[in-house]
Amino acid sequence: MGETVTLRAALRFRCLAGRCWSCCTGWSIELDGPEAARVDALLSGAGASYGPWREPVGAAADDRWRMRLDENGQCPFLGADRLCVLHARWGEEVLPHGCREYPRRPRRARGGTEIAPRLSCPEMARLCLVDPDGASVVREVDPGSADDLTFAEWLRDAGLALLAPERGVPLQRRLLQLVSLGEEATRDDRPAHLDGILRELLRGRGPWVAPDPPGHAAGAAALPLVWRVAVTGFEVAAPELRTLLERSLAAFGASIAADGRLAADATTVWRAWSRWRALCAAEPALRAWDDRVFSRDALQLWLGATDRIANRTPAAHVADLLVRVAVHRFLAAGHPRLAAARNGGPPRREDLDAAAVDTVQAWVRSMESHRRFDERLAAALEAERWDAPERAGAIARF
Questions:
Q1: Which pLDDT tens digit goes with each residue over 91-135?
Q2: Where are the domains of the chain?
Q3: Which among 141, 200, 229, 247 counts the fewest CB atoms within 10 Å?
Q4: CA-CA distance, 196 to 393, in Å (whole number)?
Q5: What pLDDT digit, counting tens, does each position of 178-225 carry?
Q6: DSSP alpha helices (H): ranges in 214-338?
Q7: Where are the beta strands (DSSP E) in the chain?
């Protein structure tokens, strides 16, 4: 029998309910026909009227619906106490599956079930990124699944093993090892070959791991890609994320021009970013924070992307992860709460953690509902061959 694979944060999560501002505002939850009919029946039986609370998605024959948000962009069933009227009156079982599952993304496969945390939720982001063991991988027996894994599930588990912080290997080295695994899996996906490669990488051996270059010069090649991805996020983002993006970019001497292009001198931005990376390397608290938080970020991104492996090469899958982590790192470093640390002041743990959670949650929340962002990121990675080992290595060293 197989396993259920998740991160501890997904098991530990408890909704903040009325103390939270996030998931019932700005998102329109989709429902299937039976779910919509069930809610209609409950409302009718109770004599409750919420007006035209749903609207069709696609053709009427598809019997797909979504919540119709009110004039404030809120779910029609969000009460004045910021609690769900449906949940309070009839219980969790009447909620659409999107509401019941959030902020988790369950995915059923041959080898079991994986449950990825969704960091668009502020509390889930906090648990996953800064709670002591929130990003620990948890495996439980899943009696309804098979022993053998699909290739996507094998690659998922191999990546989780390489990225595990408890290995005691710096994050940059773990990311480079993942690049090596992606390259080998793209070239030769025979199980016996890949099992041997993985064992060697976990032991820290093998010719596939390139040595770190002096300084951070090798990462400079990735700067245009990180910029472009950040600007793509800016173009599809909600207003609150645009403010965050502008502040983060300004910290490194960049801004967004009226035409949507990045207005900056590459040398100036790279120098500012290199100073920050040097501070992270020299200051133990910064170094520990950067490695800890973005190790966890990489783990949750990797776990949540298994369903995309089938549509691209393993090397491209790795490159996608690398650039997302790089963008999160870049934007978090420019957060206003890190202004003192960027200037060489003593970093405060609460400021470091708040900057990471605020940035990653805001970015993920805006990108989660924009397929255009994923499509443009995939096109950029493919067109410029960022899946090539030397180019992917530049992103890992960014």
A1: 988 899 888 999 999 998 877 889 999 999 999 999 999 999 999
A2: 24-42+50-101, 217-396
A3: 141
A4: 22
A5: 999 999 999 998 888 999 999 999 998 765 545 554 445 667 788 878
A6: 223-236, 239-250, 266-282, 284-303, 314-333
A7: 2-7, 30-32, 54-56, 64-67, 104-109, 112-117, 137-142, 255-256, 262-263
